[in-house]
């Protein structure tokens, strides 16, 4: 696989993940025809799970060993359920305990970083959207970092990390889930799913990596994710631009055709585009697609 293709595939996957919902929490909007199960109610909010179709079950039964099939059946249900219930519980706990910074404050921090380092990438509608998506994604993962840090300070224990930036304080999450369930704030509507849910909270495979060493945990929480984010993101954008090729990338015929197309296309006032980008970013990305 070429570096350019891998970069494009990776960024496309990241954009898809951004549009799915809050990082590590919600799945993409399903079509009206998708069968869903009302699995639980948390703080008065319904938690839905996608029903696994018979064809999907048959396909996985045919290609997986009996042990792997049983694991797939369980994990395809408890993982999304634990994720969604946990998000609602931890968000409520953070609100009730006034955990800082808030989402709005975090958005301002990322917007300030973007104004300082990403202006040159936000001079077109597509570029502005790209910056907005980056802020939206980073805001979601930063919120997880803030909650995990607060929960770890209270409950201690290991943390779980994902390659996309998610962070969970495992002991703190599980303590909250038990507290909320005991208080009647979590109600399950399927006995089997409830059993799988509690078993899932004890699974050692929480995210991609589990960090138990106290020194490594402290190091993870030492620097907030918004510090230096703008410069790091600018480097990523630059590498993506380099990987996609410049004006000289291609044969003479395609380059000549591209020049003709550009001559025929309406021009964009760069000064106006820059002003629009500044205006957009100065509004703390109010219209950002967040997770």
UniProtKB/TrEMBL annotation:
Domain of life from the UniProt record: Bacteria
Composition skew (Basic and acidic residues), residue ranges: 256-273
Region feature Disordered, mapped onto this chain: 240-279
Organism classification: Bacteria, Pseudomonadati, Planctomycetota, Planctomycetia, Planctomycetales
Signal peptide: 1-28
Protein name: Uncharacterized protein
Keyword terms: Signal
């Amino acid at each position: 696989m070429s570096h350019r293709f891998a970069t494009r595939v990776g960024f496309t996957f990241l954009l898809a993940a951004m549009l799915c919902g809050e990082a590590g929490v919600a799945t993409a909007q399903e079509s009206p025809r998708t069968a869903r199960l009302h699995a639980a109610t948390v703080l008065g909010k319904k938690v839905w799970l996608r029903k696994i179709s018979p064809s999907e079950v048959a396909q996985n039964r045919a290609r997986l060993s009996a042990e792997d099939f049983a694991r797939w059946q369980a994990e395809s249900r408890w993982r999304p359920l634990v994720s969604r219930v946990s998000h609602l519980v931890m968000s409520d706990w953070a609100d009730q305990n006034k955990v800082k910074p808030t989402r709005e404050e975090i958005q301002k921090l990322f917007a300030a970083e973007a104004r300082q380092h990403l202006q040159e990438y936000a001079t077109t509608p597509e570029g502005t959207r790209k910056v907005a998506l980056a802020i939206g994604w980073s805001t979601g993962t930063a919120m997880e970092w803030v909650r995990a840090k607060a929960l770890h300070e209270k409950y201690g224990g290991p943390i779980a990390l994902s390659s996309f930036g998610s962070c969970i304080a495992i002991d703190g999450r599980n303590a909250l889930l038990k507290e909320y369930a005991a208080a009647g704030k979590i109600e399950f509507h399927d006995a089997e799913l409830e059993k799988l849910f509690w078993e899932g909270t004890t699974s050692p495979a929480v995210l991609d990596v589990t960090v138990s060493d106290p020194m490594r945990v402290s190091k993870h929480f030492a620097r907030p994710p918004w510090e230096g984010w703008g410069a790091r993101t600018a480097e990523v954008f630059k590498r993506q631009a380099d990987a996609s090729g410049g004006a000289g990338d291609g044969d003479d015929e395609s380059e000549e055709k591209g020049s003709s197309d550009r001559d025929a296309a309406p021009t964009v006032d760069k000064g106006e585009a820059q002003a629009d980008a500044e205006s957009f970013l100065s509004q703390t990305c109010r219209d950002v697609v967040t997770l």
